[in-house]
User: Fold this.
Amino acid sequence: MEMQYRPYESFKKLGKPLEGLDEIPIRGATGGEPQSRSTESIPDLKLGQLFKHHWKDWVVIVLLFITAVVLNVIYPFRRYIGSFNIDSVKYPHKDNTVPTWSVPIFAVLFPIFVFLGYFFKRRNVRDLHHAILGILTASFLTGVITEAIKNGVGRPRPDFFWRCFPDGNQMFDEITGNVLCHGTASVIKEGYKSFPSGHASWSFAGLGYLSFYLAGKVVVFDKRGFTWRLSLIVLPLLGAAMVAVSRVDDYWHYWQDVFVGGLLGLTVAYFCYKQHFPDFGDENSGHPHPHLHITLPLAPYVSEHDSLHPIHSTRPVINGRSHDGWANGGSYDIENGS
Assistant:
C-alpha cells in the first residue's frame, strides 16, 4: 500500500510541538530520497525566532565571557625562579606589536562583518545566526581554556627579568632563593602567563573559524581544482600565523607557547564550525544545519488522551512508537537518516 504523508502542522494537535520543528523546512510528501538543500524550500525566519530557540546557547556564551574575565583577574601560579635560571628569562621587555585590545577586533568583529556581508547578499537569517553563534562560542571557549591553562601553569615569559627587576637590581629570598620582585604588580602578574599564547589562540579561533566558513561557502573541495578558492581560505590563517609570530618577536612568548595556542584555537574553531555547518566535502557545504529533516507517514497515532499510550515527550507516537522508528513499514527521515 502506498504510504501517505501528513504535514507537520497536523501533529501540533498532539499538544506541545516538536522541539525545533516550528522553524524548519518539512520535506515534501512524495516519499523517496530526500531532496538536496539546493532545491529544498526553506522559509524565511526571523532572527528573534532563532534567538528564542537557541536561548540556552546564548546564555552559555554570556557565562563563557564572564568566566574568561574572572580567570583573567585571578593571579596565576607563581612558578619558582631562582638565581640559577634567571638568565633564561632575561630577554628585552618590549611593547606589543599587536595590542591586546586589537585582537577581538580582527579575530571576532572582522569575521562578523564578513558574515553580515554574506547575509545582505543572500538574506539567509539562519546562516547569519549560526555563524555568529559559532564564532562567539569558539572565541570565548578558547579564551576560557587559554586563561585556565595560563593560571595553572604559571610559566614566566621570556622577558620576566625586566618585569621583575625593572632597574636591573636582582633580589632573591635568602631562604628559598626565589625572586623578590619590585616591579609594577600588574606587569609582574602578566609575566607568569607565557603558556599558552592568548594572542595566538584567539587569533586562530576567530580567523580559523572565518577560514572554515569561507571554505564552506566557496566549496573548496569540490574536485574542480580552483586554486583561488584554496588561496582565499588560507589568507585568514596567514593573518593568525603572523600574529603568533609577532608574539615570539616581541619576546612575550616562546615558540612552544604560540604553537600550542594556535593549535588550541584552531581545534576549538573547527568543532564549533562543525556544530553548525556540514563538512567542506559535503554536497550541502556552506549551508547551516537545519536541525531536523523529518518525513511523517499518515498512520494512526495515539492521542494524548489514550491511557494505554500516554505522551511523555514532545515526539509523536505512531503505531505505538515514537518517530525514532516504528514498525509495520513506517518510515522517517531525520538528518538524512532512514
Observations:
- The first strand starts at residue 317 and ends at 318.
- Confidence is low (pLDDT under 50) at residues 1-43, 292-338.
